[in-house]
Amino acid sequence: MSSYASLNKVLIEFYDKMASWEASVVRESDYSLAQIHTLEALGNYGPMNMKSLANQLGITTGTLTVQVEKLVKLGLLQRFYSEDDRRSITVALTDAGQAIHQHHNALHLSLTEELTKDLSEEERHTLGRLLGKVNQEF
C-alpha cells in the first residue's frame, strides 16, 4: 500500500470516528450539529458578519440566515445591524450561546486530552504542527 493510500485510510478512519463522536455529543443536547457548529465558529472567532460566518462554515448565506434566525429565537445569538448599511448584519453569541460554546469546547478539550494522553509533549506539538499544515490546504 502506498504512503498516500495508507494515510488516506487513517484520515478517513479518524474523520469517521470524530464525526461519530461529535454526533453522539450533539444528540445529548437540544441543538442540531449545524447549530452547534455555528455557535462554535462564533465562540472561536468572535462576532462576524453573515458573509464571513457563512464562508467559515462552508455554507450559503441563505442557509445561514435560517440557522441564525433559529438561534436568535432560542436566545443564543444576537444580531447587530450596521449604521452605515442596514443590509450588513453582524452576529454574536449571547451569554447563553457563550455558555453552550464553552461547554461544547470543554468536551472537545477533554477528547483531545484523552486521545493524546499517551503522546509526549513533543509528539503533541508535532501532531498539532502537522495538522495545522494540512488544515492550511483547505
Automatic annotation (TrEMBL):
PROSITE patterns: HTH_MARR_2. SUPFAM superfamilies: Winged helix' DNA-binding domain. InterPro entries: HTH_MarR-typ, WH-like_DNA-bd_sf, WH_DNA-bd_sf. Residues 4-136 form the HTH marR-type domain. Pfam families: MarR. GO terms for molecular function: DNA binding; DNA-binding transcription factor activity. Keywords: DNA-binding, Transcription, Transcription regulation. This is Multiple antibiotic resistance protein MarR. The lineage of its organism: Bacteria, Pseudomonadati, Pseudomonadota, Gammaproteobacteria, Oceanospirillales.
